[in-house]
Design a protein that fits this description.
This protein has 233 residues and is an alpha+beta fold. It contains seven helices and seven strands. Strand 4 and strand 5 form a beta hairpin. This is PknH-like extracellular domain-containing protein.
Length: 233
């Protein structure tokens, strides 16, 4: 399959536009330092990672969700038959951070990253799966970066009534070899998908489901499992 490069995050949900516009400035919250991270209760992220762990192999497209993965999630995602991949760095972390890339959200300009979006080529299904995976210089750096992403996502938990927002952080704090997730709640109060942050050694990733088919909480929980396995190599 020929994989074209994409430079943006397509979305068809008008409610998400509000979140993207507002968080362009919010991404800077993730860079506030250790004091802010401690306040979120996520400061312990990655402490179990061995300080001298051997670096993992360089990232490649096999570390992203594959067609077999999304095909197995048809009950949650519908038919997603088109993948757009950015081989030159993941430009979008989530709908919450707008066009801000991983390096901007984390403040780590040394990250190596890939991005991918799965959609329906015919427009018959509005569901989207957006993924960003990154490799840091060390496991400790990956943990700090993943922590910063979660902090940025938490900034979209508190929106005015009727606005799209994220729900609480589940399964936290994030540990090496594990993930946390937040439900995405639309203006009507319906869980329409969610976002998850994964950490594996010197790698971390973000995967988001938008406009899920059926239960949105199930959709993000089921999607993050194969994404986490791919990230682990």
């Amino acid at each position: 399959m020929t994989i074209p490069r994409t430079t943006g995050h397509p979305t068809t949900d008008p409610g998400r536009t509000v979140g993207r516009r507002r968080l362009s400035g919010r991404a800077g919250l993730a860079l506030a330092g250790a004091g802010l991270l401690a306040a979120t209760g996520l400061g312990a992220l990655g402490q179990a990672t061995p300080a001298q762990a051997a670096p993992s192999a360089p990232l490649s497209t096999v570390d992203l969700l594959q067609s077999t993965d999304v095909g197995a999630l048809r009950a949650n995602l519908g038919e997603l038959n088109q993948q757009q991949t950015d081989l030159y760095g993941a430009r979008t972390v989530s709908a919450c951070t707008g066009e801000a890339g991983l390096d901007s959200v984390t403040g780590d300009k040394t990250l190596v990253s890939l991005g991918s979006t799965w959609s329906n080529a015919d427009g018959e299904n509005r569901a989207l799966v957006t993924e960003a995976v990154a490799q840091a210089r060390t496991p400790a750096a990956a943990a700090r970066a993943a922590n910063a992403v979660v902090t940025a996502l938490r900034a979209c938990q508190h929106e005015p009534k009727g606005h799209w927002r994220y729900g609480r952080v589940y399964h936290g704090p994030l540990r090496d070899g594990d993930h946390v997730w937040l439900d995405a709640i639309d203006g009507n109060g319906t869980v329409s998908g969610g976002v998850a942050v994964m950490l594996r050694g010197d790698r971390f990733g973000v995967v988001e489901v938008s406009n899920a088919v059926g239960d949105g909480d199930d959709a993000i929980k089921n999607t993050v499992l194969p994404a986490e396995q791919r990230l682990g190599g």
